[in-house]
Specification:
The structure is a single chain. It contains five helices and no strands. It has 123 residues and is mainly alpha-helical. The chain starts with a helix and ends with a helix.
């Protein structure tokens, strides 16, 4: 039960981090593309890859994996926000942005997760 509470707390920290990072990035960019959501999803995927690699290759704690993975990274990254951003872009007539954001976001998340795993394996 204590682990579940710690995971919940880490998820809250991740959500607040996403909110602040998204706002900071969007304040510095113009246009319809949701750079903030793109950035937090890519960075969260990289961190999750690092943690997965640390568990797989170096025997890091499963508790650390739970707190940082589903906890912090689960709060930081979000498929629902990315989906909403894609729909918002498409509905506002920015179909090219919606397509690039959706497909590019997925590809970037996969590549950054793989990069995190590879970095952890190399350490």
């Amino acid at each position: 039960m204590i682990l579940a509470l710690v995971v919940a707390g880490a998820g809250g920290v991740g959500a607040v981090t996403r909110f602040l990072a998204d706002g900071a990035v969007q304040d510095r960019t113009s246009g319809p593309f949701p750079y903030g959501t793109f950035l937090v999803n890519a960075s969260g995927s990289f961190v999750l890859g690092l943690i997965a690699g640390a568990v797989w290759y170096h025997g890091a704690s499963a508790r650390l994996d739970a707190v940082v993975g589903p906890g912090f990274c689960g709060g930081l990254t979000t498929w629902s926000t990315a989906s909403w951003e894609s729909v918002r872009l498409a509905e506002s007539g920015h179909l090219r942005h919606a397509t690039v954001f959706t497909l590019g976001g997925l590809a970037t998340a996969l590549v950054t997760a793989i990069a995190g795993i590879a970095l952890a394996a190399a350490l």
